[in-house]
Description:
Blueprint: H1 20-30, H2 32-38, H3 44-68, H4 74-94, H5 105-111, H6 116-125, H7 133-145, H8 155-169
Helix pairs in contact: 1-3, 3-4, 5-6, 7-8
Amino acid sequence: xxxxxxxxxxxxxxxxxxxxxxxxxxxxxxxxxxxxxxxxxxxxxxxxxxxxxxxxxxxxxxxxxxxxxxxxxxxxxxxxxxxxxxxxxxxxxxxxxxxxxxxxxxxxxxxxxxxxxxxxxxxxxxxxxxxxxxxxxxxxxxxxxxxxxxxxxxxxxxxxxxxxxxxxxxxx
Length: 172
């Protein structure tokens, strides 16, 4: 006697199960015709969106299942998965538009928390560019303040003049 197949039923999303949303959407797609016959409110664009969501979520479901399996060693896989996730993050970042040269990159990276690995690296390695231009400007201004004609200025007066000139010019 042939064993009868149980009819497939819709699945519910369970908040404590990572993959339950994927399984719920996949089941809906699997029994699309039966659902369409009952719920006529879903149109082709919605079904296309459901299928696309399933295709995006499937790799995550596979990875979680593999990491949850007792048969495999997960530590070695976590390293590979972390590297793949970093490559995906890098790929998404590369597709973003370039920022203007006038924007502060540290502020930008603080706002781009959607790239946690890259954001951490950027904040660690983006430093103020070492340049002597500001100090050269101050030295140049000091040369204009302390000249042959003003050689008898007290050092405290010269320091104050240099400081105020620097503040006025916005150098320091």
